[in-house]
Amino acid sequence: MKKTGIDRRFFFAREKSGKLRALFFPVARLNTVIVKALRVGLGQLIIFIDFITRPGKKQRPAEAQAQVNQAARSLTLYQFHACPFCVKTRRTLHRLNVPVALRDAKNNEQDRQTLLEQGGKIKVPCLRIEENGETTWMYESKVIIEYLDQRFAAV
Ligand SMILES: N[C@@H](CCC(=O)N[C@@H](CS)C(=O)NCC(=O)O)C(=O)O
User: Fold this and answer.
1) Whose CA is nearest to atom 11 of ligand 1?
2) 117 C-alpha vs ligand 1 centroid, how far in Å?
3) Where are the alpha helices (DSSP H) in the chain?
4) Å from CA of 60 to ligand 1 middle
5) pTM for the full model?
6) Ligand 1 site: residues with CB under 6 angstroms?
7) pLDDT tens-digit readout, 98-108
C-alpha cells in the first residue's frame, strides 16, 4: 500500500525517536550506575564513621543489666544496614546497652513482608514492641530514640 504524507512523517518521527533513545540509553545507564555507586559509597562512609565514633556502652550492675536484657527480648528493630536513621537508632541501642534483635528489612524478604503486612509500610527504622500480649509498631527514629531513652537511660 502506498504511504501517504502523514504515514511517512509518522514513520520518520518514530525512527528518529528510536535512534535518540538508542543514543541516550548508555548515558542514562551510566547515570544510574553512578547514582547507585554514590549511594552505596555514602552508606559505607556512614557505617565507617559510626564505627570509629561509636559511644561507649552504658555500664550497669549485673542485676540491672539482666533486667534490661530481659526487657530487650520483647523488642525487635526492623532496619536497613546503611540507612542513616537506622544507624542513629542502633547507636542509641549501643549507648544504652540494650541488646535488641535486628531484622534486615532490605535483604531479607520474609522480614520485609512482615514489616509491610504487620507494621503497615516499608519504612525503617521501625521498632516492634511486644507488651502485655499487644504488639506496637513504632516508626520514626526520633520517636524510637526518645522511647528507648525514657525506658532504659535511668536503669
Ligand atoms: N523520618 C524517618 C525517615 C526514615 C527513612 O526515610 N527511611 C528510609 C531509609 S533511609 C526508608 O525507610 N525508605 C523506604 C524504602 O527505601 O523502601 C525517620 O527518621 O525514621
Assistant:
1) 123
2) 17
3) 5-52, 62-72, 84-96, 109-114, 141-152
4) 32
5) 0.80
6) 80, 83, 85, 122-125, 140-142
7) 999 999 999 99
